[in-house]
Amino acid sequence: MTGSMTMQEATLEEMLADPLVRLVMARDGVEEAELRGIVQRVARARAGRPRRDGAARSLADAAA
Fold first, then answer.
1. Domain spans in the chain, listed from the N-terminal domain onward
2. Distance from CA of residue 62 to its chain's centroid?
3. Where are the alpha helices (DSSP H) in 1-64?
4. What is the pLDDT of residue 30?
5. What residues have CB less than 8 Å from 39, skipping those under 6 apart?
6. How many Cα atoms sit within 13 Å of 1 on the Cβ side?
7. Fewer Cβ close by (within 10 Å): the C or N end of the chain?
8. Contact 63, 43 (CB under 8 A)
9. What angle do CA 53, 56, 57 make, to 5 degrees?
10. 39 within 8 A of 16, measured Cβ to Cβ
11. Please, what is the end-to-end C-alpha distance for the chain in angstroms?
12. Angle at alpha carbon of residue 33, lines to 50 and 37, rounded to 5°
């Protein structure tokens, strides 16, 4: 195999575009706006905390 393979976590947008995720959300009664609000609150809460590996944390890192 040539080149390098990297694995990346799906973004929130990618997850919300997945029909299976939408089915599970519907089954569980989870609204998109509710989920987005939770992710934003967690991102803000994590943004000020240092990472476990000591590297700087950005808001983008916190949302991941």
1. 12-63
2. 8
3. 12-16, 19-28, 32-47, 59-63
4. 97
5. 12, 63
6. 3
7. N
8. yes
9. 95
10. no
11. 29
12. 20
**How many degrees, rounded to 5, is the angle at CA 34 between CA 58 and CA 64?**
25
How confident is the model over 10-40, as pLDDT tens digits? 999 999 999 999 999 999 999 999 999 999 9
Token pair 């569980």: residue: 28
Q: Which amino acid is at 36?
A: R
Q: How far apart are CA 53 and CA 11, in angstroms?
A: 22
- Write phi, then psi, for 8 (nearest 5 degrees): -125, 140
- Nearest-angstrom CA–CA distance, 26 and 20: 10
- Sequence-separated (6 or more) residues with CB below 8 Å from residue 57: 46, 47, 49, 50, 51
